[in-house]
Design brief:
Low-confidence stretches: 312-317
Helix content: 40-55%
Strand order of the largest sheet: 3-5-6-8-7
Largest sheet: 5 strands, mixed
Structural class: alpha+beta
CATH class of the largest domain: Mainly Alpha
Number of strands: 8
Strand content: 5-15%
Radius of gyration: 22 Å
Distance between the termini: 27 Å
CATH architecture of the largest domain: Up-down Bundle
Length: about 375
């Protein structure tokens, strides 16, 4: 069905072109390079950046489009996955039909187009989650979802690639900002305070906890308030928000029937030579060891999925305390994208510590799945 629909919707020449570009070599960029290159967004640099993206983005998008066609267990045929595939093919076609970028006016036009591509792909994560859900609905209940390793590995590659594509587009678009915030080079903040981001992310997570439970544990943050390093604030906010949200929920539910005051969540920011590490500690009862391997899979959530067949995808961004089970695996990908990592250590019966490692050197190349 997927193949038939593909030929109906897209021309054979486009499909052949996707195959050809999907075989080309991708080119990774480091945080440091993005920062140094973007620190002087002259017309010439913007032109070079646009010419690079004009060649690089179709390669990355074609690879994902090809993979979306060949997923195991019939996942490729699910309506939500077909929709995502169509978004990727539309974007590939837009990029390939854009002629050579020779001057500033071409570059400006190209920038508007890739901006539109980024918007087109806004709902890819909830839409893929819906596809996985459609698959689970029709699956034999004897299959253990955590064993569907192939799908998990595909989603890791797919979302990692998406982070890279969105970073490259967002960085290029943001370099056009005539009035950039102080110390900002595109998406990168050259003097980002991890403490300040942790504070903002914690406040956002507490607000959601308040809305859902009527109260929220305190969050205490420790570290040097004057310490800064170059990083992407939106990425760090997303990761810390996710970790704090999980901790708040665990503590809130662990102490729901208790007379005791819910203990605070502690965040410690440590600046090492290689890494900046942010530890988020809670006393929310912990995770059993048998459950630890599941927390990074996309096919497992302890919560009801707010995005189901009948929900309006326009509201897919509304955040709940539980989410649809993608927060941790996607946070780990964001950490790994710039050479960091995310580890979870738990003591069942007591609580959980999450260690978020961020590489402070910024030299590591993007992972290119």
């Amino acid at each position: 069905m997927a193949a038939k629909k593909l030929c109906e919707t897209f021309s054979k020449s486009l499909i052949d072109d996707v195959q050809r570009w999907g075989c080309m070599k991708q080119t990774g960029v480091s945080l440091r390079y993005m920062m140094e290159f973007g620190s002087e967004p002259s017309d010439r640099n913007l032109l070079i950046s646009a010419q690079f993206l004009h060649k690089e983005l179709p390669i990355r998008i074609a690879r994902r489009a090809i993979e979306l066609e060949t997923l195991p267990y019939g996942l490729s045929e699910k309506p939500a996955v077909l929709k995502v595939r169509d978004w990727y093919l539309d974007s590939f076609r837009d990029l390939r039909s854009f002629s050579e970028i020779k001057n500033t006016s071409d570059e400006k036009e190209f920038t508007q187009m890739i901006k539109a591509i980024k918007v087109r792909h806004n709902n890819v994560v909830p839409m893929m989650a819906l596809g996985v859900q459609q698959l689970k609905k029709g699956m034999d209940s004897t299959i253990v979802y955590e064993d569907l390793d192939e799908i998990h590995q595909f989603l890791d590659r797919f979302y990692m690639s998406r982070i890279g594509i969105r970073m490259l587009i967002g960085q290029h678009v943001e370099l056009h900002n005539p009035d950039p915030p102080l110390h900002c080079v595109g998406y990168i903040h050259t003097k980002m305070s991890p403490l300040e981001i942790a504070r903002n992310a914690s406040e956002d997570a507490r607000a959601i906890c308040m809305r859902e439970y009527g109260s929220a544990p305190d969050v205490n943050i420790y570290g040097d308030p004057s310490f800064t390093f170059p990083y992407v604030p939106t990425h760090l906010h997303l990761m810390v928000f996710e970790l704090v949200k999980n901790s708040l929920r665990a503590v809130q539910e662990h102490f729901v029937d208790s007379d005791k005051v819910a203990p605070p969540i502690r965040i410690i920011v440590a600046d090492g030579i290689e890494d900046v590490t942010i530890k988020v500690s809670d006393e929310g009862g912990g995770i059993p060891r048998s459950g630890l391997s599941k927390i990074f899979t996309y096919l497992y959530s302890t919560a009801r999925n707010p995005l189901d067949e009948d929900s309006d995808l326009g509201t897919a961004d509304s955040v709940t305390m539980a989410g649809y089970g993608y927060g941790l695996p996607i946070s780990r990908l964001y950490a790994r994208y710039f050479g960091g990592d995310l580890q979870i250590i738990s003591m069942e019966g007591y609580g959980t510590d999450a260690y978020l490692h961020l590489s402070r050197l910024g030299d590591s190349q993007e992972p290119l799945p």
